[in-house]
Design brief:
This protein has 741 residues and is mostly beta strands. Helix content is 10%, strand content 26%. It is built from eight helices and 40 strands. The longest helix has 16 residues, at 336-351. It is elongated, with a radius of gyration of 32 Å.
Length: 741
């Protein structure tokens, strides 16, 4: 995106140095679904906390309660949170003490603090160009934004108590407030990152910001001689990054989708400059939500993913939110379907990658009764979150409901369950899940196949995948164990039609049929073996250049025996009815063989058909042809049980007619091939075999390599739709035949 560049500003005495390389992150070490996790924003660390800090007394109940957790998030901004609190927790067994910091909003005590001045001016959103541009006539910092017109109500001390947005995308000359939590909204640019790093409680790191701990203070080493001095460093193990959501891709007050890249860069800056500290993102799930696009900018936040720069992610209010007033039966959040079926599987897919992250959840009782076991079984047992259930939205109590129900993952005997990232309808439950292999596509060479599958979920992460490749004819299987899978590059923008993961299988043999399936395994070795796999034909580009005199057009195929053939198709009347197999009485379109040749003297293309029963070459037998061997052109849509067509079909031979594709790629729009001039293909048959022939000019005179798939439509014979035979069988997962001229 085109963004304004503010340059250095007078307030700041030093520029930020961004490290260009950083250590790989990945999930938090040693944290599993057995780990105890709490977010605590209380301020009662000391039972006696008035007067001289040297006389304060740590509250043994609060401190011992917090020390019973493995991961503790605290807010250094609380008046009685001191470095001593952090040191006590670390000395008493807490593995990670994480400090809160807001990176998307400037939270201040506006009764005594003001927006930071001394800058080049705040920015506003230009709705015509989609850019952030300077707002003339002010000297505020460049990270303040004026996008909406707002009415702010203050109390008697000058503290804002409410904000109403009166006009969206209409600047009013004032920096925007968060309409709910009353922080100043931020475009997190380079200058803001300087503030984040250097502001200090009670210090002079940033003039005008002496009430909030910055990155350096949160993470810096203790001054053990002054552990109750809140102007010294807290010694936390990392950062709990709040208010990432302000960069969300939505058009409503409180959302600033044009900051998605600057927010990503801010998280990256923290990761790069604090390589030994945990980076824990609070929300911001849009960065992992494949298919989510901003209506304002047209951008996909997943293109700016923060996955490489964080160790952990919190899904707040996954099942139970802090306000149950509008919730459904059982007090379950009205947004649970959106969380469970749409967003979470996509986040799980990203979390389970090599550079992924640990998943945490935060739930609220908030007056609900009898939900502890349900919340525990949902969040931890089923989905593998490291979960916490709090009494209410204030997060000021030490609750041990989850901690007392430890799942004991060493006794986890449940296999992972298949899920789907393909649900895209807002707040609706998914009606089906994607089991195992979803697609197989030829790799860069014929002996490679790109295998694609979606996501499995489990209590015990990480989930790994084995791929089993079986040579069908020889009944020999090869297992690729714990494959190093990648992101399917088409998934990020279109998860409805593409699965999340892919791996390239090598060492296949051309012109063989394979069955390829995926086994999902959890960290304890429990396996899901539900996938029956997809059949895939490793199709080499065959070629049979002949003289026209070599073919006797009698339908008997005697002379075809000396020509190279494609692999035969098994008898598909097997009692299995799906997109590859046919069953039921009267289904006569049952492909067994296809052969192709082209006459170099007459420019004629020949096909030899072999059917399982006596053949009648009608519209029940069809051949889809990709004459430029380019899957991105021609028909690519859905047809007869296939969601994504295996080729980009430019022409269709349907019985005696030739059609040319005339659509946009996904629609079913065919016209009579103009070059055919209304003529029909030649055809002749005898018993179970037949021949079809036509001039190559009718299909654009292909001269390189073409791809094609064969289709048998038994509606011609039975009048009943839905019984058909694809050949090769692997056409439903991306396989096709190829022929070279």
């Amino acid at each position: 995106m085109n963004k304004v560049s503010a340059g250095l500003i007078a307030l700041f005495s030093a520029a930020i140095t961004v490290t260009t390389t950083a250590e790989a992150r990945g999930p938090m070490t040693g944290v599993t679904s057995d780990s105890k996790f709490i977010i605590y924003y209380g301020d009662d660390y000391y039972s006696s906390n008035t007067g001289d800090p040297s006389t304060w007394v740590l509250d043994s109940t609060i401190m011992s309660g917090l020390a019973s957790f493995d991961v503790v998030v605290i807010n250094p901004g609380q008046p009685h949170c001191t470095p001593e609190v952090v040191k006590y927790l670390k000395d008493n067994g807490v593995d990670y003490v994480i400090g809160y910091i807001s990176i998307g909003e400037d939270f201040i005590n506006d009764a005594i603090e003001d927006p930071l001045g001394g800058g080049t001016g705040m920015v506003k959103y230009d709705s015509a160009t989609g850019d952030l541009i300077p707002t003339p006539g002010n000297t505020l910092q460049s990270f303040y934004v004026d996008v909406d017109s707002q009415t702010v109500t203050y109390d008697g001390t000058g503290r804002a108590i409410s904000v109403t947005t009166t006009a969206r995308l209409t600047p009013d000359g004032n920096p925007d407030y968060n309409p709910i939590f009353l922080g100043y909204m931020v475009n997190p640019d380079t200058n803001w990152r300087w503030v984040l790093n250097n502001m200090r409680i009670g210090g002079s790191g940033v003039t005008g910001r002496g009430l909030t701990a910055g990155l350096a203070q949160i993470a810096g080493a203790w001054d053990t001689a002054n552990l109750r001095d809140r102007s010294t460093n807290f010694g936390c193990d990392g950062f709990f990054l709040d208010t990432l959501d302000t960069a969300g891709p939505y058009d409503a007050p409180g959302w600033y989708p044009w900051t998605v890249d600057e927010m990503r860069d801010t998280v990256k800056y923290i990761s790069d400059n604090y390589t030994d500290k945990v980076v824990f993102a609070n929300r911001g799930a849009f960065y992992f939500s494949a298919g989510l696009q901003s209506p304002l900018t047209g951008e996909y936040p997943i293109d700016y993913s923060i996955r490489p720069y964080i160790n952990a992610f919190l899904y707040e209010s996954f099942r139970y939110d802090s306000d149950p007033v509008t919730d459904g039966p059982g007090g379950i959040s009205e947004y649970y379907n959106e969380n469970r079926y749409n967003v979470a599987p996509k986040v799980f897919a990203e979390a389970n990658r090599d550079d992924g992250f640990t998943m945490f959840s935060l739930e609220y009782e908030s007056g609900r009764t009898g939900i502890v076991t349900d919340a525990f079984n949902t969040d931890i047992r089923k989905f593998g979150y490291i979960g916490y259930l709090c009494e209410d939205g204030l997060l000021i109590t030490v609750d041990t409901d989850f901690a007392n129900l430890l799942p004991d993952s060493s006794n986890d005997t449940n296999a992972p369950t298949w899920d789907t990232t393909g649900n895209v309808l807002y707040n609706t439950a998914s009606t089906s899940f994607r089991v195992g292999v979803q697609e197989v596509e030829e790799g860069s060479v014929i002996t490679e196949a790109i295998v694609r599958w979606d996501v499995a979920i489990d209590q015990s992460y990480p989930i790994t995948y084995d791929i089993i490749v079986t040579d069908i004819a020889a009944s020999i299987s090869t297992t690729y164990t714990d494959v190093a899978f990648d992101v399917n590059p088409d998934w990020g923008h279109d998860p409805a039609n593409n699965s999340a993961n892919e791996f390239t299988v090598t060492g296949l043999t051309a012109n063989k049929n394979y069955n390829i399936k995926v086994v999902a395994k959890d960290a304890l070795g429990n396996q899901n073996t539900e996938d029956t796999g997809l059949n895939y034909y490793a199709s080499a580009a065959l070629s049979n250049p002949i003289l026209s005199s070599a073919i006797t057009l009698d339908g008997l195929l005697t002379e075809w025996g000396s020509l190279t053939s494609y692999i035969g198709d098994p008898d598909d009347v097997t009692g299995v009815s799906d997109a590859s197999h046919i069953s039921g009485a009267g289904n006569q379109a049952n492909w067994r063989q296809i052969q192709v040749a082209h006459a170099t003297d007459t420019g004629t293309l020949y096909f030899a058909y072999t059917n399982d029963t006596n053949i009648y070459i009608s519209w029940g037998f069809q051949i889809f042809i990709d004459t430029d061997d380019n899957p991105a052109t021609g028909f690519q849509g859905s047809f007869a049980g296939i969601t994504n067509f295996p080729i980009g079909a430019d022409y269709l031979i349907e019985g005696v007619n030739v059609y040319q594709y005339n659509g946009t790629g996904l629609d079913w729009n065919w016209i009579a091939a103009p070059a055919a001039g209304g003529f029909q293909v030649g055809r002749i048959w005898s018993g179970t075999t037949g021949e079809v022939y036509l001039p190559l000019t009718w299909i654009g005179s292909p001269s390189g390599t073409m791809s094609f798939v064969c289709f048998g439509n038994n509606e011609f014979y039975t009048g009943v739709s839905g019984e058909y035979d694809w050949y090769p069988d692997g056409a439903t997962s991306g396989a096709s035949f190829r022929y070279s001229f």
